[in-house]
# Entry
Amino acid sequence: MNADVLPLSEKLRPYVVFLPIEKKDKILSAIFGSKAGVDILRYSLKQGISKNIYQKDLVNRLNYSNKTIIENLKSMTSLEVLNESMEKNEKDGRIIWIKAYQLTNLGRWFALLLAEEQELTASEKTQILQDLFRTYVKQVKHLAEELGINKKMLEETFKEEMKSNP
# Structure
């Protein structure tokens, strides 16, 4: 047996994140260099990765100061892990603007790294696998073009693997 290949009996999941080359270290440091960054991602998972995140909710639910939450939100926004927008709300007859944050595609991948498989529905798992596969194929195709590798060879490899029995 090839030492680089794990037996198929080993339960593996593809924890893959595609990172912009020039921001890789900053993004990884911003998220994993601070427990607050990880907790913000976990919070987004619990409430639903497509829903908005609000600073006030993070301060109320996570055990961090307002300053720590703000610093992490700013950092994650500047690194495009979160998108920032403004929402118009009415309170006591006054209009107030509230910052809302939402995970970007990159942010969703990081949040999903932290998810437990049993927390995801079958349709979420299907969508994740399709998104992962599409992104992977695009990246492999681009790399093959850069390296001058014949894409037909990659297509044949794919067909072989899809036909083969586990």
